[in-house]
Amino acid sequence: MTFPRLLFPLAALVFAATAHAAPVVKTEHVEAQLLAERTGTQPGKPSMVGLRLRMAPHWHTYWKNPGDSGLPTKIQWTLPEGWTAGPIQWPYPKNLPIGHLLNYGYEEEVVLLVELTPPASAKPGMAAISAKADWLVCKDVCIPENGTLDLNVNVASAEGSPDNRWQLSFERARGMLPAQPSGWVFAAASTGKTVTLKITPPAGTPLPAKATFFPDRDNVIEHAAPQKSRVEGNSLLIEMKHQDPVPKDFTTLAGVAVADRDWPGIAGRKAVVLEAAVSASAAPAAAAQSTSTTPGSGGGARSEVGGSVLVALVFALVGGMLLNLMPCVFPVLGIKVLGFVGHAHGDAKALRMQGLVFSAGVLASFLVLAGLMLALRAGGTQLGWGFQLQSPMFVTLLAGLFFVLALNLSGVFEWGLFAQSLTSNVSARGRNADAFLAGVLASVVATPCTAPFMGAAVGFTLAQPAPIALTVFLALGVGMALPVFLLSFFPNLLKKLPRPGPWMETFKQVMAFPLYATVAWLVWVLGQQGDIDTVLGLLLGLVFIAMAAWVYGRWALSEGPWRYAFTALFFAIGAWLAAPGETTARAATNATAKAGAIAWQEWSPQKVSDLVASGQPVFVDFTASWCVTCQVNKRVALNNDGVAKAFADRNVTALKADWTNHDPRITEALARLGRNAVPVYALYVPGQGAPRLLPELLTPSAVLDELNRLPAAPAPATAITQR
Amino acid sequence: MKKLLGLAIATAFAGVAFANAPAGSPAPAFTVTDLAGKPVNLADYKGKTVVLEWHNFGCPFVQKHYKSGNMQALQKKYGSDVVWLAVNSTNKSHGDYTAPQKLTKELKDANAAPAKYLMDEPGTMGVAYGAKTTPHMYIIDPSGKVVYNGAIDDKRSTSVDDVKGAKNYVVAALDEMKAGKPVSTASTTPYGCTIKYK
Questions:
Q1: Window 47-86 of A, Cβ < 8 Å to B
Q2: Residue B143, CB-side half-sphere exposure with 13 Å CA sphere
Q3: Which of A28, A143, B20, B166 sits 20 to 30 Å CA-CA off A197?
Q4: Which residues of chain A lie closer than 8 angstroms to B18, CB-CB?
Q5: Are residues A135 and A79 in the same domain?
Q6: What is this structure's pTM?
Q7: What domains lie within chain B, and their CATH numbers?
Q8: Is the keyword Signal in the record (chain B) (predicted)?
């Protein structure tokens, strides 16, 4: 053994002589002691001390929010001149259930940490500090106890080494201090009955499956009510029951979230401290998509909004591009492509101009639409995406427009004054106006088609402040205009398109048929909204419009006034016949329920809650007859023998929420789910808070998968957090 | 594991069964026996203001308000205008449970003066009201509506010294009611010991 090695224990002995362990105060149920983390404290520098409470078996002391009863431990310091003591740093507590009630506190042992700072002028040597601690210690009875605890702190020029007697105690206490992670997003939404906390760590980290929330305030949540946590996308959600009544000043949910294992990115820590602005109404629980639909009312939820606006923009952009492929846009796009092919081998500059103008037309329409929706939203009207098609007048106009376009493609008549003007000298201005109109038209017809991605983006938009809403709508428009825009700027791509020739006329005429199909669909929509007489009116009206178009086309070369007079006359008759009457808005609930083996019932919010309360799983189809995706889904996924059998086997009640006509209850229900468009398919499982949302493009297997996850017997309502 | 599950289910069930009588809601009806074994109904006091005080002498928070004389003074302050009912929901097997005879003496020794002292040993009344702590205070107006639900005052502590200088919510509410004004602070968070329910 060498000399220095011998020295070390010696030195330690000397140290021990100077740094006495502070006396232990023993009360009936607690042993209390002040501990200094290090053997020395530098003047002007904070150092950590701890109040260690060792409770008798099964006795507990309380956290800063004691829960339903009890009292937090208090410390009153008596310090030398110039010294300061920080607030108690509380390790995270545990749930202490007592009958109907719940307390937050500590059993066995806890070390409450406090930072002590000597003044910069402190002289080296021993400083005597004293703390009067008050604690309430409870088992099935409660005893208020207190003790005056002394500690000598060694003030030295150098920071002391960790006192190995208490090292473990401090390590454990520090590990239980809630971490303050950076880059995390916290949001909370209150329905008035429940409040749901949404915790989103930076993306790409695996989340714990469960967490328990301990609120700072004692009057915001019903402590004893079970908390429900679940993972959705990159977020962990904790749903809690509110205390009744909810305090008026409850605007932020602050406290500590303790996970069942370490939180990602902060190794060794199960607890995070957090503060989340609380927004009213729709719960973020409903935000099944990664696009957040937390209504960002006020500036409180800024970070939340900031994070998800970007996501919403990307979704909107992609959604807009996909819109081009939707059945209701494609025919219009067809017209546009015809135009491009016609001009591609000509003037590249003019082509670019047309691309720009077309894009401008799309963007302008989306902006107008967004503005309109925002204005109506401000006016308090309950609206949703596709709302235009709830108006019989709008449907009729659209049917007429498409019919005329189809007739044009079929060759019944040509645009412009003369047929040849199309192929030769169309003025640049005329062509641009044409492109702009094509953009507008494409946008208008695109709206009813809820592409995947789009529902979430629009739902998000409607809940956002106006500037954000407009930006998202613009992104949608940019996405939609992008393919045409790119084609116009890279005519090389266009060169790959076939050269114009006689095939174009054939192609054009073929393109008329999707348009006729669209007209057929619109007539059917109107039939859902009105009665058979309304449909007859529209069809007769279309006949007269066809006559007007025929007259216009047949006598295209005639200079006489009769051509215009007859065109106008027939058109007027057609319009008059087609115009929907007052009686059109008939509830169209029973018309859609005939097909399929699933026994659909009419939806009402009351019915859903009643059925779920009685332990019955409920499937809700939010649909509308003007929603093409809905109809496709119905035929492909729902009118399927296997699916119908699964509904019966699992005893799932199927409800149809028909949004064909304006129904504020459905609009509100959709908003609760974070959506503003149909289709939405929601599966309510008893005992689980928010419903599961199925994909918007439904497949039989997607439905079966969800249904098969249901227990064959009614689910027991035992979603309980750690107790 | 099985036990844990049982406990979890029991707790969930208890959570559902544990009601609440928030301010503004009709006061739950009750029939409970007093110290003499006579039944007492809420309906007996129709047309009168009723104060409910959840009580347990074994609780240091209750002791704070009796040692200081605070609660007794309140019980007498409003005379016959206000019917003061102390309620004890401690279950029989708990150490804090005191038999009616002994309790009568303890109340007399403490100079307590509630109009009636109700023995809610099964805890039904406490559960119906959602009473959490001793003390937990309720005020029911003459129409039978709960107008106050919460703590006795704003100083959460067991220290007798804190009675002075605390804002007494019950006094504030009763004075406002007397003046014909609505109760401005109608609900607070009660503090105290957990009620020792069955």
A1: 68-71
A2: 7
A3: B20
A4: 100, 224
A5: yes
A6: 0.51
A7: 45-194 (3.40.30.10)
A8: yes
